[in-house]
Amino acid sequence: MAKKVLIVYAHQSSGSFNAAAKNAAVEVLTAQGCTVDVSDLYAMGFKATATAEDIKGEVKNAENFCYLEESKLAWEQGKLSADIMEEQSRLTEADLIIFQFPMYWFSVPAILKGWIDRVLTNGFAFSQEKRYSQGIFKDKKAMLSFTTGSLESMFSPTGINGDMNVTLWPLQNGILHYCGFQVLAPQIFWAPSSAVAEDRKSMLESWRTRLQSLLEEKPLSFISLDCFDDKAFQLKPEVHEKHASKEFGLTVGIHLNKPLPPHSQMKNGCGCCSELL
User: Fold this and answer.
1) To bridge 84 with a disulfide, which of 37, 80, 164, 185 should be the other Cys (CB 3.0-4.6 Å)?
2) Which residues on neighbouring strands pair with residue 102, listed in sequence order?
3) What is the pLDDT of residue 2?
4) Rounded Cα–Cα distance for residues 177 and 185 (Å)
5) What's the subunit arrangement here (predicted)?
6) C-alpha to C-alpha distance for 56 and 181, rounded to whole angstroms
7) Using an 8 Å Cβ cutoff, are 10 and 101 in contact?
8) C-alpha–C-alpha distance, residues 31 and 177, integer Å
9) Burial of 118 (0-12, 13-18, 19+ CB in 10 A)
10) For 275, which DSSP code?
11) What is the rounded end-to-end Cα distance, in angstroms, of the chain?
């Protein structure tokens, strides 16, 4: 069956490099027979703030409003605002989600963070019982495709911005993997704004080439939830012991006070945790 792709796009300008990257994805994936849907957040005027306005009717506790609890209840009752429900419907239909954006302050733009906060609601995207490797979206793939303002060398282990693998950990593990997504390696366009036209063209051609087989790519490796106990969520002793003699830590975040596994958030097949899955 033809795959369905959702591109969550966050850039203000149709003439931007991000727009070109988004357009390339639409063109190549459509040519492969995929159904491609685009959520153009700025064009939609998508609301970035998670507030009580996201809930139709009365909330359960107006005096001590808790978005996590109230949005879960509203989702269960079909009382989330129309824009959230529309995006959740798009996400439910998709086999692959591509987030296309310029990196702002080592993270995503506010409007995209608002999409994450509002659309990935408690109950719909995660629960205490269904998260990480047992997450709700474990049958879906997701990836980050973004531009940087800094050169690649600046995002290295010896660069002034630090290791890009560390920068990506909260986004890829704390959001995508937390919701169960199989996370594909990111597509990073290094400083296109300061590159010459020929180099920008080459970046887009590399992206087009990757898109040809994107749906067959293996995801990044993360540690299975089964490797942790079910009380304090600490690594089980046998897992810790098995890895004690290894040179590198398990992941960027769960590093066991060892050197970080190189490229584990940037290339599939990298890292030291795949043997534990």
Assistant:
1) 80
2) 147
3) 83
4) 12
5) Homodimer.
6) 29
7) yes
8) 29
9) buried
10) G
11) 28
**Residue 104, both tokens:** 């702002």
261 φ, ψ (degrees, to nearest 5): -65, 125
| C-alpha–C-alpha distance, residues 78 and 71, integer Å | 10
229 three-class SS = coil
Identity of residue 262: P
Backbone CA torsion sign across 215, 221, 226, 228 = negative
- Which residues partner with 235 through β-bridges? 228
**Dist. CA 135–CA 97, nearest whole Å:** 16
Q: Which two tokens stand for residue 52?
A: 């009580």
Which domains can be identified in the chain, with CATH numbers?
A: 4-218 (3.40.50.360), 221-276 (no CATH)
98 CB contacts (<8 Å, ≥6 apart)?
5, 6, 7, 8, 25, 142, 143, 145
Contact 140, 95 (CB under 8 A): yes
Confidence band of 274 (pLDDT split at 50, 70, 90) = very low
